[in-house]
Amino acid sequence: MTILRVTALLPGVQSCPSCNRALHYRPLAGSDHQNFLRSAPRRSDRALTLQASQAAHQTVMVMTESSELEIGTPAPAFELLEPLTGDMVRLSRFENASATLVMFICNHCPFVKHLKAEIASVAKDFQPKNVAVIAISSNSVETHPQDGPDEMAKDATTQGYTFPYLYDADQAVAQAYKAMCTPEFYIFDQRQELAYHGRFDESRPKNDKPVTGADVRNALDSVLSGKKLSSKSIPSIGCNIKWHPGKEPSYFGVQ
């Protein structure tokens, strides 16, 4: 069986301005889906997989869709390097936090760059409330050396991050969280069970909406006050995680 990767135009999905790769999001149904598409940038393309079977003489088109952890899922454990300090950081270090925010970000993605200052502000506002904040970069340094540990340490200093910015060298943590794009946000409650997985806010590069972190801020406030969050959330959108060549996870698309 031969597998070819092609790009086809589909409504509602934009290519990454920095690398022209397709962006990914969790699909929504009905009006929520339409509202999301209207809020997304206008340019449209999406990665498709063309699966050609010589035996069956058939062609099947399969869209790549992001996966998600179910609400209530325990946070997958990890131990990762913090390039800025050289320390190894475990999730268990934050087991006494009232809530835990885990973000998959990187250095180069314009969707992350658009939010960096407010991400730092959210952390500074909520860490005094016993919220643990953790950022992880899982991008392959084989294809994107600008996202490597040395540059991560510089970025953490430049942005004034008050939280650990960790390096997922083998991408095992991204796969455990079924992460698809940068940025992507997960909020876990006091038991470190998933309470929220969605966007930061409605702002995107060039859509002229202010960066506020409203969705993440509201979700954190709800978790801290013990309120149950809606099972529906608007997904994050951004550049796909840059997997090591030939090592894309099965949930990323047909291999």
TrEMBL record:
Any one Gene Ontology MF annotation carried by this entry is: antioxidant activity
Leader sequence range is: none
Ranges of residues in domain Thioredoxin? 69-225
From which domain of life does this come? Answer: Eukaryota
Q: Which Gene3D superfamilies match?
A: Glutaredoxin
Q: Which residues form a coiled coil?
A: none
Which SUPFAM superfamilies does this chain map to?
A: Thioredoxin-like (SSF52833)
Identification of the protein by name: Thioredoxin domain-containing protein
Organism of origin:
Apatococcus lobatus
* Lineage of the species this protein comes from: Eukaryota, Viridiplantae, Chlorophyta, core chlorophytes, Trebouxiophyceae
